[in-house]
């Protein structure tokens, strides 16, 4: 989807999804906690200021895609990693400033980036605890990375998919991801889709006005 068109549509998207706000109507304690204390968390983490400085220092070395993600998305990625505390992080898609936020969310985690399938090197037997999959312009790439990484999920695995509603192809793919037998609770934030693979919790799909 064209970025200008998405910006113009944003107010209407927000109004349409308004009733799905702040955990309204959510009865699962897990989902309610995630929505209110992670997705909608507004605490000014001390790391945010450091990350802004680090991003600016690297901008001159990077291409135009380095800062294409919104501050809101990057900060949410930081909070999700901080919440999940993964041992392994896979960052699949065009390298962007979100890489800084993913690494900062769990310092010391094993971080792997791949802008193409040929760069997706995963150590044998090691699960994928956290996946950020962001290349909605290439749904074929997104689907293949999901297939590879979903085979390495465990109960603590969390996948974040960018642009799930930006194109018809991505929305169809998002539906298939949710229906995957390994997937558990899912969250639709419009800009992002979040999949948890903890099968001890009752599977349900939530729409969140993010």
Q: How do the strands and helices of this protein lay out in sequence?
A:
Layout: H1 3-16, H2 29-39, H3 46-59, H4 71-84, E1 88-93, H5 98-105, E2 110-114, E3 130-134, H6 139-150, E4 158-162, H7 168-179, E5 186-188, E6 192-196, E7 205-207
Helix pairs in contact: 4-5
Describe, in plain words, how this protein is organized in 3D.
The chain contains seven helices and seven strands. The chain is α/β, with parallel strands linked by helices. It has one domain: Rossmann fold (3-Layer(aba) Sandwich). It has a seven-stranded mixed sheet, sandwiched between helices. Helix 5 links the parallel strand 1 and strand 2 (110-114). Helix 4 packs parallel to helix 5. It starts with a helix and ends with a strand. The mean pLDDT is 89. This is Class I SAM-dependent methyltransferase. It comes from Bacteroides muris.
Question: Which properties best describe this structure?
Answer:
210 residues; alpha/beta; Rossmann fold; 40% helix; 15% strand; globular; Class I SAM-dependent methyltransferase
User: How far from one another are the termini?
Assistant: 18 Å
**How many domains make up the coordinates?**
1
Strand content: 15-25%
Low-confidence stretches: none
CATH topology: Rossmann fold
Number of helices: 7
Average predicted confidence as pLDDT: 89
> Over all CA atoms, what is the radius of gyration?
16 Å
The largest sheet, given as strand count, sense and whether it forms a barrel, is: 7 strands, mixed
Order of helices and strands: HHHHEHEEHEHEEE
Number of E strands: 7
Briefly, what CATH class?
Answer: Alpha Beta
CATH superfamily: Vaccinia Virus protein VP39
Strand order of the largest sheet: 2-1-3-4-6-5-7
User: What's the CATH architecture?
Assistant: 3-Layer(aba) Sandwich
